[in-house]
Write a structure and sequence with these properties.
The structure holds 2 protein chains of 2 kinds. By secondary structure, chain A is mainly α. Chain A is built from 13 helices and no strands. The chains are: A mainly alpha, B mainly alpha.
């Protein structure tokens, strides 16, 4: 018989504690989690709204004023911002508001497309090169060949390639984008290769290899997501780089030609008059480039945090 | 063994770059004597062409150039009649190198510092301030920053010389103009990889065993986070020390940068090839050193399967 005394040694299970093993939080797919993280991040939302607003303005902006980007009015040249010309006029009397938003189309297209092409080629070359280095004789050879191609593209004078393209193709926006992309990806490829070289020594990669995961899956599912922060940072400054490279090409007479406008060429044109106090010529295109950069950067930072599974709180 | 192999590969790479550059520059239309063609009689032009071997068939021109290259003779400059390409480089390179190194040091020092400050204060005020500065630095290119620097520091406040080259004071403004964008990029790289590193378990271990925050950041943080910065400054180093066209033009600096662009527009063939070979040599050596430094920073990294 169990006495009262011994009975006291036993304690009935507290039923509620069993529930502590149950997963309480709803199971979310990766995509949903990322979306929730981004929406929670105020700066990322701000960046997304800004980008959206800039794109909308690039589409409708030039139609909000009765002047086209190319209408000249010499009598009305070099006017500061006013109620008539919101961003002022340039030396030929062209409306700066209209030119700024028209320029947004060219600059954003150049920046975004060039960045996208850089990303795709850079990820492929950098990922394969970094992963294959030190992986047998064939692997060494693949890394060696890819990196020598990168060096050769770095080494050949970029301007020569651009002029060659201009000879082969007709001058225009797409020729500029191709010219920027031919060598644009090499920086991205080397950055990603460096990251992969460092990351692939981690235990989780070894585990994946021993489990028989395919090379492609290790690169794309295990290595690249962990290099994402650096990839996003690199991507966010590829965009302004492309915008300025376009203006440099235009400055050399190889880019978009007058009367077309881009932010880079507008900033370039303003250099001669900024010392005369015509600040609006530099300020508006310059400010738009900085604003776009700001938007991409805060959105990129937010994205980096959101894509990290450890961020979930 | 690895180093010997890489050295041989470097020579092949430089030869490939020179060959491709030769093919491209000869396939674009243009003539180094285009501006003389109207004033000089045909016979004189023929003689000048013969002097620079331009009358010979392309394969012969190529062979002659490569033969001279083996003896490090980069040939005469067509544009500058008194100086050959070796002299152009010997005159211009020291100037560009001083300027480039100076701006690289500024960019590295302040970029790394800004990035670390931002990462350690993630999502706090200092982080936002540092990244705001970085965004401005990336958004304002050197060709806009340089005239603004001249306007304020040289013209209005008269603190520094407007342009040209000579004393150390002359090099301050161009160095700042050159350093700003790389500095901002380095800061963003450093912040991003530092954030990643500071989340790792070995940082927690270092904290748990009582290391001071400074020791954690310097010994464990920077060392593991610096790799992307090293990768980024590799090609940047080669570009900066061989001179940049825009900044040298704005500040009237007698460096090497202008030849990279002017030679192409003047179709000054020996200068195009000479500057390209010179730049490529520095580039491939730098990228090799970057690869080597990966292993010094992180000994786990294997560059080849033989383990070296």
């Amino acid at each position: 018989m169990i006495s009262q005394k011994e009975d006291a040694l036993f304690r009935p299970i507290d039923r509620s504690r069993l529930e502590s093993d149950v997963i309480q939080r709803p199971s979310l797919s990766f995509g949903k989690q990322v979306l929730i993280n981004i929406v929670k991040n105020k700066m990322a939302v701000l960046g997304a709204i800004l980008l959206f607003a800039i794109v909308i303005m690039a589409i409708v902006g030039p139609h909000l004023v009765p002047y086209s980007y190319s209408d000249q009015n010499l009598a009305n040249g070099s006017q500061p911002p006013s109620s008539k010309h919101w961003f002022g006029t340039d030396d030929l009397g062209r409306d700066m508001w209209s030119r700024t938003w028209y320029g947004a189309r060219i600059s954003l297209t150049v920046g975004l497309v060039a960045a996208l092409i850089d990303l795709v080629i850079g990820v492929l070359v950098g990922g394969i090169s970094g992963y294959m280095a030190g992986r047998g004789k064939l692997g060494d050879r693949i890394d060696n060949i890819l990196m020598r191609i990168v060096e050769i593209l770095y080494g050949i004078p970029y301007l020569l390639v651009v002029i060659l393209l201009m000879v082969i193709m007709e001058q225009g926006l797409w020729t500029i984008i191709i010219a920027l992309s031919i060598t644009g990806w090499v920086g991205m490829a080397r950055i990603i290769r460096g990251q992969i070289l460092q990351l692939k020594q981690q235990e989780y990669v070894m585990a994946a290899q021993k489990l028989g995961t395919s090379h492609a899956k290790i690169i794309f599912r295990h290595l690249l997501p962990n290099a994402l922060g650096i990839i996003i940072v690199n991507l966010t400054f590829t965009i302004p780089q492309a915008i300025f490279a376009e203006s440099f090409l235009s400055f050399l007479g190889l880019g978009v030609q007058a009367p077309f406008a881009s932010w880079g060429t507008m900033a370039n044109d303003a250099l001669g008059v900024i010392l005369n106090g015509q600040w609006w010529r530099l300020f508006f295109p310059g400010f738009m480039i900085a604003l776009t950069m700001f938007a991409f950067n805060v959105f990129g930072d937010g994205l980096q945090d959101a894509l990290d599974p450890r961020t979930r709180k | 063994m690895y180093i010997v192999k890489r050295l041989l590969t470097m020579i092949v790479t430089i030869w490939l770059i020179a060959t491709l550059t030769f093919i491209i520059m000869k396939s674009i239309p243009g003539d180094p004597f285009a501006s003389d063609a109207n004033v000089l009689p045909e016979e004189v032009l023929q003689n000048i062409r013969a002097k620079y071997n331009l009358d010979k068939p392309l394969p012969v021109q190529y062979a002659l150039y490569m033969k001279n290259l083996l003896t490090f003779d980069l040939g005469p400059s067509i544009q500058s009649e008194t100086r050959d390409v070796n002299t152009l480089i010997a005159d211009g390179f020291p100037v560009s190198a001083v300027l480039g190194l100076q701006s690289l040091v500024i960019a590295l020092l302040f970029g790394i510092l800004l990035g670390i400050i931002a990462a350690l204060n993630h999502n706090r005020l200092l982080d936002h301030v540092a990244m705001f500065l970085a965004i401005i630095g990336i958004s304002v290119p050197s060709f806009i920053l340089a005239p603004l620097l001249i306007k304020y520091f040289a013209v209005e406040w008269k603190l520094l010389p407007v342009a040209s080259w000579g004393t150390w004071a002359h090099s301050i403004l161009p160095s700042i103009a050159l350093a700003t964008t790389p500095m901002a990029v380095i800061a963003r790289f450093m912040r991003s990889s530092m954030l990643e590193v500071m989340r790792q378990n070995y940082i927690k271990t270092a904290e748990a065993k009582g290391l001071s925050p400074a020791a954690i950041v310097i010994k464990h943080g920077i060392r593991n986070a610096i790799l992307p910065v090293i990768t980024f400054i590799g090609p940047l180093f080669a570009v900066l020390i061989t001179g940049t066209f825009v900044i040298e033009k704005i500040f009237a600096i007698p460096g090497l940068g202008k030849y990279f662009v002017d030679s192409i527009f003047n179709r000054d063939y020996p200068v195009i090839l000479g500057t390209t070979v010179f730049f490529s040599t520095i580039l491939v050596i730098t990228l090799f050193l970057v690869d080597i430094s990966y292993r010094l920073i992180d000994p786990r990294i294997k560059l080849t399967s033989r383990g070296d």
